[in-house]
Amino acid sequence: MVRRRISPQPPSRLAIWARRLAIFALPVALLAVIFERTGMFEIWPVMATFGAALALAALAILLALAALVSIWFSGASGGAQALLAIVLAVALLGYPGYLAVKASRLPWIHDITTDPYDPPRFEVVARARGRDANSVVYGGLAVYQQQRAAYPDVEPLETNATPQQAYDAALAVVTRRKWRIVDERPPIPGRRDGRIEAIAFSPIMGFRDDVVIRVRASGGGARVDARSASRYGEHDFGDNAARVQALLDDIDAASSPEQIERAARRTSRPPAANGQPARR
To answer: In DSSP terms, which residues pair with 229 in a beta bridge?
Structure first.
């Protein structure tokens, strides 16, 4: 009896191309991150590169779905490649998709301040912004009304610490967060407020957001105001409000009497003979 050999169906070319596009989208996205974090290009080439990566991932999903339909009817191989393409593409599109959903629930603002009537001014970082960057001029009460409705907890910090103590606490918090400090001016009683200007970076892409902190005397203590603004884009996805809230919470904790006393003990502790701090 002669056995008839059944030749296997060739793999689906749609599945092959879906996998190739999904894999290729990953280094393209990584390239955009490198461009932004190293400062090699301005924001628009970075966004164009990252947008191309997302478009490739979306196209890979469409090709993979078409491949699965074709495989179902033709019996061709390549199902694993199509599924791999979908997994890789969804992994790349997942976080941008989450941000898109988040943006739909938040106001289209990118500048958050605790003082809308006299917002802390950007001075040094204003000169570092490109021509296509957002304006450093605050948008006024119309913007603040949207901020107030979405982020009612963003308030100035009133503390019993002296202006110098509050400034030292703010500087320590900014240093601990590893923001790039571009200007720092301690307060001089009766002459000037304390000011810290710094650049914060988003965790994944490394986008630059500008931050300014102002410390001034208030009653028997100090008032700390903060402002955080995105350099580019009309929507900040709530990042600036979250940054200001966390920043003031940390400054409040660092300027508490217990923390100030602990810091004073550390600085006043005499060194031992071997150069190490003396132990009690």
So the answer is: 111, 210
